[in-house]
Design a protein that fits this description.
Blueprint lengths: L8 E3 L6 E3 L1 E4 L10 H14 L3 E3 L8 H9 L9 E6 L14 H15 L4 E6 L8 H13 L3 E7 L3 H14 L5 E5 L13 H8 L2 E4 L30 H5 L5 H8 L2 H7 L3 H10 L4 E6 L4 H8 L8 H11 L32
Helix pairs in contact: 1-2, 1-11, 2-3, 3-4, 5-6
Amino acid sequence: MLASWSVEHRPLGSGGLHVSEVTYGNWLTHGELVEREAALACVRAALDAGITTFDTADVYAQGAAEELLGGALRGVRRESVEVATKVCLPTGEGPNDRGLSRKHIMESCHASLRRLGTDYVDLYQAHRFDDRTPLEETLLAFDDLVRQGKVLYLGVSEWTAGQIREALDLADQLGLPRRIVSNQPQYNMLWRVIEPEVLPLCQREGIGQLIFQPLAQGVLTGKYRPGEQPPDGSRAASGGRAPRFIGRVLGDRLLDRVQQLRPLADAAGLSMAQLAIAWTLSRDGVSSAIIGASRPEQVSENATAAGIRLDASLLAQIDDLLGDLIDRDPAKTAQMMSVKPEWAQPAWPNPSLR
């Protein structure tokens, strides 16, 4: 059963699609770190909280995440949820098992629909920019999927402002409707590289932001403390790929500063996680923040960040406290997969999947 809209909804950009302020995503959880029953319980908790938007990708757990999400949503009225997935990153060893060619887009979309158990996805996103494929080929393939009714809206993820601008201009030249309604970037209190260029462009063009990592891999929850081992049960202490992603933000200098956010959260009557998510949702141009979870109670707690409004003085205190640890370098939008922030310790590895 869906809740009676306890989570508020926002338009995704200037289009007609509305998404829940908090989106449930299953990167690094479903099919990897979380057992099937726990994953199903998390989806049920999301629905109970009023979350209607669910984000996944063909590459997450090599398709297992899509399959699990599709199974979890079976029996839910299809029209009452918004399902988003992605295409571009490698799903196999072959040269055509990646990228944004017509071949891979068409094959990947059909495979995603089968795994999700649906006739269409609400939002289909280009997981990265593909400089090996002519952009015209990519845009026409996406447009065909929309015309076929297999995709309702289109988005991109971690594209630079220049790449988004190029796609919009080319769509105009080709006489295509401007179907890109969303961008999915990493964005949080610490990582603000989209602010100088991507956000202003998207706001002018009516493209909404579907944010991932609002909690900076859990670091902004305050559960990782300087000089201490990661707590049992956390992603950083788990097996699989999670520790190498989280290791990029576990420097003691950063963790010490994050702990100083706790009195601000306490004064506002919020948990650290709620503060971080509410901060993301307070930014202009943001339509929704994606959360992941390994336990249903995490979903329930984080979902309550929807609807929380932070006052200007609290936002200013956060900026003052984090100060020189905030990264706003727009060049790192394109380099996000390999750049090591000044505060990362140990060195930021090269995550190939997100």
